[in-house]
Design a protein that fits this description.
- The protein is built from 15 helices and no strands.
- The chain is mostly helical and 353 residues long.
- It has one domain.
- It is globular, with a radius of gyration of 21 Å.
């Protein structure tokens, strides 16, 4: 992409298997700074710091200064946050955009002047986030639920929300048009959705990633995605109990550990001795994550009947993100963008101690 060849796969043919947002971002970095993976890693560091700054600023504004300081410290000290900065995955980039959209959502929920313009900006940010990872779409229903809970009349927010959705569609439109020209099918973001759905819903599924299913010769990416959704839904319809049990496995793999970033950041280390020395890093990564998650869950459960508007929105984003991935399969990479929410809830728990 940086060299002007467009979005193509390893076989040289146009692709849309993964969302184009992160490859496009990397292409921009390589075009400006040179095609060096180290440049992308430095950009990860910059975006990671910027995300922590957003968490601090947003939490101070919509909660209080003490909670903001504790949340920022927890997030800064997270070994998972540090480890992913050394990988060329979309975690850091997506989290930056996703967290920015979350705190902009809090601004919208607080109301104020120029509401339509603010909603339009939120729609643009939501579109950019979805081009990196489609899970960001859950912010739309989370916003609707929060506005409904706030008892704001339809007349008050219908037009601003409509403006947001128009901007959201306009951001996705160029990608969708390109994909239609390539695949002659409607593909708003990417073609891996149906395949991921089939990976998580088939007779051999165990709730985690298990490799791509066989794709018949001559079937396009878009056709394989459609086929994946069809076969996955067929399996669920004929095996409802197995599918229900599998949901529990997906939930387990979604939250059971937090060391995948550390694992991938060390994937090029061949020395067995260094791997042995790294075991404590894996242990402390997971222990820190378990403490943060336990504090967050304890706080939400204790305050479940008296959550503030902002806390309720955070909880809605957490639940809807979980439900989104339960439709596919579980991976600890998937909960990474929720770290800001975990840290704020954990900080609230610490404040009450």
């Amino acid at each position: 992409m940086a060299e002007g060849f467009g979005y193509i796969g390893n076989d040289g043919r146009p692709t849309a298997y993964y969302p184009a947002g992160y490859p496009a971002f990397l292409a921009m970095v390589y075009r400006i700074l040179g095609a060096d993976p180290e440049a992308a890693k430095y950009m990860n560091v910059a975006l990671g710091i910027a995300t922590i700054a957003i968490v601090y600023w947003g939490t101070k504004k919509y909660f209080n200064r003490r909670v903001a300081a504790v949340a920022a410290i927890i997030m800064t000290a997270s070994l998972s946050q540090i480890a992913y900065a050394d990988t060329l995955f979309s975690e850091i980039t997506f989290s930056f955009v996703f967290v920015a959209a979350i705190f902009l959502s809090l601004k919208l929920l607080s109301g104020g002047q120029n509401e339509t313009a603010a909603f339009a900006s939120w729609g643009v940010l939501l579109g950019i986030a979805c081009l990196i990872r489609p899970v960001a779409i859950i912010l739309a229903p989370a916003m609707v639920v929060a506005l409904w809970r706030e008892k704001r009349s339809l007349r008050n927010f219908a037009m601003p929300f409509a403006a947001a959705m128009v901007c959201f569609i306009l951001v996705l439109a160029p990608n969708a048009i390109r994909n239609y020209k390539v695949f002659h099918a409607i593909v708003p973001i990417s073609t891996n959705g149906g395949i991921d759905f089939q990976i998580g819903n088939n007779p051999n599924s165990r709730g985690h990633y298990m490799g791509m299913p066989d794709i018949p010769e001559g079937v396009s990416e878009a056709g394989a995605s459609t086929r994946g959704y069809r076969e996955g839904l067929s399996w669920i319809a004929w095996h409802p109990f197995d599918a229900f049990v599998n949901e529990g496995r997906k939930l387990f793999y979604l939250y059971a550990r937090d060391d995948e970033g550390t694992l991938f950041s060390m994937s090029n280390i061949p020395d067995v001795t260094l791997w042995a020395m790294a075991i404590p890093v894996f242990v402390f990564t997971d222990l820190g994550y378990y403490c943060i998650l336990a504090l967050a869950i304890a706080y939400v459960w204790r305050k479940r009947r008296s959550l503030s508007q902002n806390e309720y929105f955070f909880a809605a984003v957490w639940v809807l993100t979980t439900l989104f991935y339960l439709a596919f399969f579980g991976s600890d990479r998937f909960h990474f963008p929720l770290y800001a929410i975990f840290c704020v809830f954990a900080a609230k728990a610490v404040e009450e101690m």
